Amino acid sequence: MEITFSNVDFAYDKAAKPLLKKFSLKVKDGDLIGIKGPSGAGKTTLFRLLLGFEIPDSGTILFNDKPLEPFQLQLLRKETTWVPQDLDLGEGKLSEVFYFPFTFAANRSKSPDEMKVLSTFEALGLPKSVWQEEFTNLSTGQRQRVGLAIAYLMDKNIMLLDEPTSALDEASKEKIRNLLFDGKRIILSTSHDPWWLDRCSKIIELK
Ligand SMILES: Nc1ncnc2c1ncn2[C@@H]1O[C@H](COP(=O)(O)OP(=O)(O)OP(=O)(O)O)[C@@H](O)[C@H]1O
């Protein structure tokens, strides 16, 4: 698979200076991309453009060499998981809310049994006890690892990770990298974390 941003300009406020100016990037299977830059530089906006929530003012975004027309966008979305920095699964015990992302048609076939979920939690250093906890009572780092567990279990070819290590200790970071990075899928990550950026195959800096 291949994703290409070619000379993309984008502004939310069309009267203001563009947020992204002539942004170009080519990524392919096995790439682990780190996108860094100050808050507000447009890192998350790149994900929104890729998923078609925003449209470039000029330039093109290609998925497997084809423009993101509705059909191609649908194909891309099917292949993609986005893990936000602060996952919100709503109210309820984790064992109840965990399956919500697996209720969507594109993910239903990936819905894991409880044993698989708990063994993934173990691999990410999450104690089994969190399964019966209220999701909203989990720590930020635990919620983040739940999001990454969901991404792992969905097993998509493209992962968009927002600050994947921001609330994690070094041991957990290592576990997450080992679990998610299989050398085959595309991982696009926003990050301020030198530890994570050091392990990326390519770093993009937004000003
Ligand atoms: N839907 C929107 N409508 C208008 N402006 C927006 C919208 N989303 C983001 N912005 C603005 O665009 C700029 C870039 O936002 P973006 O979330 O892409 O930044 P970021 O680099 O991911 O920041 P952070 O590191 O804080 O997450 C910010 O100034 C933000 O306020």
TrEMBL record:
- A Pfam family reported for this protein in Swiss-Prot or TrEMBL: ABC_tran
| Ranges that cross the membrane | none
The GO terms describing molecular function are: ATP binding; ATP hydrolysis activity
Quote the InterPro entries the UniProt record gives: AAA+_ATPase, ABC_transporter-like_ATP-bd, P-loop_NTPase
- Give the record's keywords alphabetically: ATP-binding, Nucleotide-binding
Q: Which CDD domains match?
A: ABCC_MRP_Like
Q: Where is the ABC transporter domain?
A: 3-206
Among SMART domains, the record links this protein to: AAA (SM00382)
> What name does the UniProt record give this protein?
ATP-binding cassette domain-containing protein
